[in-house]
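Students often ask why we bother encoding 3D structure as a string. The short answer is that it lets us treat folding as translation between two languages. Here is a chain of 233 residues written in the first language.
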Amino acid sequence: MDRQRILIVRFVNELQHRELSQFRGAVINAVSGSDILFHNHQGDGFRYSYPLIQYKRIGGKAALVCIGDGTEAIGSFFENANFDVHLGDKQVKLEVESVDARQFIVQCWDDMFGYSLRKWMPLNQENYRKYVMLDSIVEKTEMLEGLLTANILSFAKGLGISLEKPVSVKFTGIESHRTYLYKGVKMMGFDVDFKCNVSIPDFVGLGKGVSLGYGMVARRRDKRIDNNEKDND
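And here it is in the second language, the structure alphabet:
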């Protein structure tokens, strides 16, 4: 089994979801932007791969989720960072509350696991047109399940993992949907519950905008994630 590393850094600093881009900018400035994994920019373009450092709001507070090589890169943050940062027009001092290092396995199993998925943005411009033209809830649900399956496959591929069995995704509830402004573009986002035969670690992202807290996954055993992430958008 190919075990992957994940490091979750939680801060005592409270954060609104709309402040995540400012938090990301503050961390990048704090480490002088030297490591591509912090910002996913390469030269004049982008690193088109799954983000290994993700900026989150967990329990209403700022957090970093570092995966694979991202767990090594975060060392420069602790070694070199200036923890006195600007969040917009506010001067704040980042204070670490906890650092949680884990290992996890992403693979297909015979069993299904229950998850919640918050602020998930699966639709690009083309898929959005197809989605709104569908007449039935069944058709829309099937389309979204297919997109989530593709997101899970992309997540695994981004970690260098090849899933050996077909991925099975089944929605158990669509709690809500709303529009988010992401990079100046209005995007439809969903809060959903689903079952899947792939083991996915808590707090990683699926879909668009995962480096900025969108599409955050949590196993259904921890309902606190659901409640905290639905507030203060």
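Translate back mentally: The chain is about 25% helix and 40% strand. Keep this in mind for the problem set.
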